[in-house]
Design brief:
By secondary structure, this protein is of the alpha/beta class. The chain is built from 14 helices and 10 strands.
Length: 322
């Protein structure tokens, strides 16, 4: 808490001196910054919208523009070309981007645990992962999905090859509700909530309870170049973002109001249900544990998501958070 306040104070001082104004901006004017989300706005982004609504980014000397990802957007490319300065990335995508040669760096956690799970549509028929043997299990086709399914099955002593994998893309809710598959890999905070709201009697096997370390699923990232060239800007954005998430944890109802006011087309009851489920995963706000990150990196490599463990010291900079 003290670190975040200090970062915000430092950013305000920097803005007053005019060093936050970029590219011909008036001295002392807020610096324009673009943040690309990982997905359409939803409850997991509540802390960002709270920070916007409360003026925390502005107080820190920045003018933050939050953008939704488009079908063709590639956040690492946007970051390296300076068309965006920050992005929210799934931690697996951060590792994959670094394998592709992008010098993107995680600077703060958004959530503190994995959001991935294997979700079964009949909680009475499926009480443990071993009950999925010979069942049809949907996956998106991403390597991380196969890793989640393998980990959950192996943790219960099941051969991952004993289930019938069906590629369903990103339509787990319809596939499970419609009986096309018996279970599917999905996010418990999103698809899991949507299925329960539809009355589907689900059972969830969250991956960090079945073999995976408790890694931060979503991470705020920037580039090494920006960290080196303008650490004060990184401090300002990280500090305001983490303070926004602290406020979201303290007053989730107000954070929900901020999210709905800042992002169009969201259903209040669904987002409230998502945020209530997410609350335990948001704390402790602003902690990046190198030991946890190393465990995540090894797990990703062991399950074929990454070719080899990443250099955690290069892939993450923990100096901007508590």
């Amino acid at each position: 808490m003290g670190k975040a306040a200090a970062l915000l104070a430092a950013a305000l001082l920097t803005a007053a001196l005019g060093s936050c104004g970029g590219g011909g901006a008036e001295p002392g004017a807020p610096q324009g910054v673009t943040l690309v989300l990982d997905f359409q706005p939803n409850a997991v982004h509540a802390g960002i919208y709270t920070a916007l609504a409360r003026g925390l980014y502005e107080d820190a000397g920045t003018d933050l523009d939050v953008r939704e990802p488009s079908a063709s957007s590639d956040a690492p490319k946007l970051l390296e070309s300076d068309r965006a300065q920050f992005a929210i990335l799934d931690i697996h995508d951060l590792g994959l981007a670094r394998e592709r040669g992008f010098d993107v760096v995680g600077v703060a956690p958004i959530v503190q645990r994995p959001l991935a799970a294997v979700i079964a549509a009949d909680r009475d028929a499926v009480r443990r992962p071993a009950d999925l043997v010979a069942d049809r299990v949907g996956v998106t086709g991403l390597p991380s999905d196969d890793a989640v399914l393998d980990s959950v099955l192996e943790a219960d002593g099941v051969d991952p090859g004993s289930v019938d994998r069906v590629t369903i893309g990103f339509d787990a809710v319809a596939a499970l509700a419609g009986g096309q598959v018996d279970a599917a890999t999905a996010f418990w905070n999103a698809e899991g909530v949507a299925l329960r709201r539809r009355g589907v009697p689900t059972r969830e096997f969250r991956v960090d309870r079945y073999g995976a370390p408790r890694y931060p699923e979503l991470v705020l990232v920037t580039t090494r170049a920006l960290i080196d060239d303008d650490p004060g800007l990184v401090e300002a954005v990280v500090g305001a973002t983490m303070e926004g998430y602290r406020l979201a944890v303290t007053d989730p109802e107000a954070a929900l109001d901020d999210l709905l006011a800042g992002a169009e087309g969201l259903d209040r009851s669904e987002q409230q249900a998502q945020l209530e489920g997410l609350e335990p995963a948001l704390s402790p706000v602003g902690r990046l544990d190198p030991a946890v990150l190393r465990a995540w990196s090894r797990w990703d490599a062991e399950h074929g998501i990454l070719e080899q463990p990443v250099d955690v010291g290069a892939a993450f900079d923990t100096s901007f958070v508590d």
